[in-house]
Structures are given as C-alpha cells and as structure tokens.
Known about the structure:
Blueprint: E1 2-13, E2 16-28, E3 33-37, H1 44-52, E4 59-67, E5 70-71, H2 77-83, E6 88-92, H3 105-116, H4 121-134, H5 140-144, H6 153-165, E7 171-175, H7 183-200, E8 203-208, H8 211-217, E9 220-225, E10 228-234, H9 235-240, H10 245-252
Parallel strand pairs: 3-8, 3-9, 6-7, 7-8
Antiparallel strand pairs: 1-2, 1-4, 4-5, 9-10
Helix pairs in contact: 3-4, 3-6, 4-6, 6-7
Amino acid sequence: MLSVQNVSISFKSNKHYNTVVNNISFELGNQQILGIVGESGSGKSVTSLAILGLLSKNANVEGNILFNDVDLTKISEKEFQKIRGNQISMIFQEPMSSLNPSLTCGYQVSEIILQHKKISKTAAKKQVIELFNKVKLPRAAAIYNQYPHQISGGQKQRVMIAMAIACKPQILIADEPTTALDVTVQKEIIELLKELQQETKMSIIFITHDLSLVSEIANTVLVMYKGEIVEQGLVEQVFKKPINNYTRALINSKP
Ligand code: ADP
Ligand code: MG
C-alpha cells in the first residue's frame, strides 16, 4: 500500500544541503502496524512529514514514495489536500499543534468530514458524536461543544484520533502520540489505537523513541539511527535477535 523507496531528505541552509535521512526503504502493507523507533533527531518525523507532503520549502526529497501506485514525491499540494486527512491521516505528540484553541472540538472534527465528504452539517455532527463515542470520550455530546482547553491532555489526544479516523483513512501516522501523556493515559491510547486498527483495518505507522511501546503495538519495526535504517523486521525477531549494535544497545538498556 505504501512503499518508500531509496528516500533521502536534505535541508538547505546557507547554500549547503544537510542530509538528515539517508537512502531509506520500507514497505507498509495492508492492516499492518509498523513501529519506527530511534532516538531524537534520527529522522523519524522528517520521514513522516515527507509522506504527508508537509516538509518545509527548504527540504529536498530524493527517491520515491508510492501510495497505491501514486508517487507522493511528484504530486502537487492541491492533490495532497485530497489525500491528507482523508486517505492518510496523522496525529502528533502535541494535540494543540493541530487543534485550534478558538473552535470547539466537535466543530473542528466536523469540518474535516465536510471538507472531504458531501454530507449535511447535521449528518456530520452525528458522525462526530459517534466518533467521539468510538474513541471513548466520556460525555461525547458535551465535548462536542467544548473548547480544547476545557478538556484534559488525554481527551485532546482522543479528539485528535477521532479527527484522524473521521474519513476512514487507509493509513494513520502517529508521531509520538503518547509522549506528552502520563503512563496510564499512554496505555489507554495504545489500547485504543490497537482496537481501532482491528475495527477499521487501517494500517498504522507508530513512531516513538520508546522501544517498549513498539512491542506493545507493532507487528513490524524499523530502527532509525542518524537518518538511516539500521534494522527492520518482525518485532519478535528484532527483539530476540537484533543484528545491529545500536538496536542491541537499545534493547539492553530497557529494564
Ligand atoms: P526525530 O527522529 O526526533 O523525529 P526529526 O525527523 O525531527 O527527528 O529530525 C531529523 C533531523 O532533521 C534533525 O537533525 C533536525 O534538526 C533536522 N530538521 C528537521 N526539520 C528541519 C528543518 N525544517 N530544517 C532543517 N533541519 C531540520
Ligand atoms: Mg520527532
């Protein structure tokens, strides 16, 4: 479904290009949960932004990113707008980077639906309340009318997840979605993502710097180090028999 082929990403500064992702290749299949793990600065977010067409103007992407045979490195921003939030969605570490503080939670999710589907505002509102129930927000109808600052961090992340799955995407990219949350809420969100994956059959790219989360959610994993993929495979295999020194150190550093 998604095939990242020999992708390198560099940023221009002072006439020089600084390569931050170096010739990476991987596949994301149907219904798969792929974990991408690596320390801060290893190129995880830049890779996901490239898939979403959200890199800044000074970025240069080489290689190919095929999504259902469309090369995402070749399409216009206008074409991306039809895909983003619709066929490929994302959630980030900080929900407020995507939620508008001056609009109600429900309104923001309904706008996404109305942007991509030809349905009435009333029908969209009904769908949003169903989505809020699906992501296990308490008092879904009340939260519809609340502003982001009126709900907790975990609830905001649930609103973000509702927004991300609103249009039934084929791929959800979750970039450190639980890093800003405390441990119990983190576990709940992981469980929710697993349940939603089972139910909707979407594929998920779950990005984290925390290897232990990968074993909880992912089927396959790739390990990034300084812009390169140093290891990839089935989660059990990589955990049992890591071939790379960095991966070994990562696994051994866990209690
Ligand atoms: P992480 O694995 O922590 O998500 P990132 O993908 O955010 O790492 O960053 C990888 C590298 O790319 C870092 O060295 C970062 O400083 C650099 N980088 C990210 N965005 C930009 C940008 N817009 N311009 C220049 N360098 C960037
Ligand atoms: Mg990041």
